[in-house]
Amino acid sequence: xxxxxxxxxxxxxxxxxxxxxxxxxxxxxxxxxxxxxxxxxxxxxxxxxxxxxxxxxxxxxxxxxxxxxxxxxxxxxxxxxxxxxxxxxxxxxxxxxxxxxxxxxxxxxxxxxxxxxxxxxxxxxxxxxxxxxxxxxxxxxxxxxxxxxxxxxxxxxxxxxxxxxxxxxxxxxxxxxxxxxxxxxxxxxxxxxxxxx
Length: 197
What we know:
Layout: H1 7-26, H2 33-41, H3 53-56, E1 62-67, E2 72-77, H4 80-90, E3 97-101, H5 106-115, E4 120-124, H6 128-141, E5 147-149, E6 165-167, E7 189-190
Parallel strand pairs: 3-4, 3-6, 4-5, 6-7
Antiparallel strand pairs: 1-2
Helix pairs in contact: 1-2, 1-4, 2-5
């Protein structure tokens, strides 16, 4: 996986990774070295075209699609600290098969780094515009092995083996069902959500 990296982007990426590592250390939970390495390798700016690089590497979520009529965000690239937390908790390892629910591209690229060449990443979204955008971004960043699909697309996706884990940037308060993903009894969910009550 290769991409053209300008010194400014590389410097900003290093600063972002240092900030994420420091934030995790501050709460007494060190970041897994594999997640740190993935954050250092994936060019976040490739998934936020048109945004100033300094904003692309800020520790904030960036909305990539919204519904102005309803005033709601439909898709975003999550904040680096949130992504790092999800990936750390998911304990994704080389060779895993991971299903990402809600595609933006950046998280799928990070997961691709974690699973390595013997793993698989499938990223799905109900919005084909978001899938198309993710495909363009992943391709421009050199992550062509990520499988993208939309359950609403008219063309069926080729079957994929069951996943060993799921990572989902679901909306706050929208949690997956308890227990492992139904696709694999040993699987895990990892998403930033809060339970009611």
